[in-house]
Amino acid sequence: MDARKNGLMYRWSLKQCLSYFGYIVYGIFYNLIVVKKTHEDYQILNVIVFNFLFCLSVTSHLVTSLINPGDPLLYIKNNNRQADSIYLHCTICNKEINLFSRHCVTCNKCIYKYDHHCYWVNNCIGSRNYKPFFVLIISSTLMCAILVSSSFTAMFLIFSTKTSFDANDEQGLTSFIIFLGLNSLISFFYFGYITTFHLVMVFKDISTYEYICKKRAKSNSHVVPRLVVDKEFISVHTENTGISFGISFGI
Ligand SMILES: [Zn+2]
Ligand SMILES: [Zn+2]
Question: Could you say which ligand is closest to the alpha carbon of residue 90?
Answer without folding.
Answer: 1
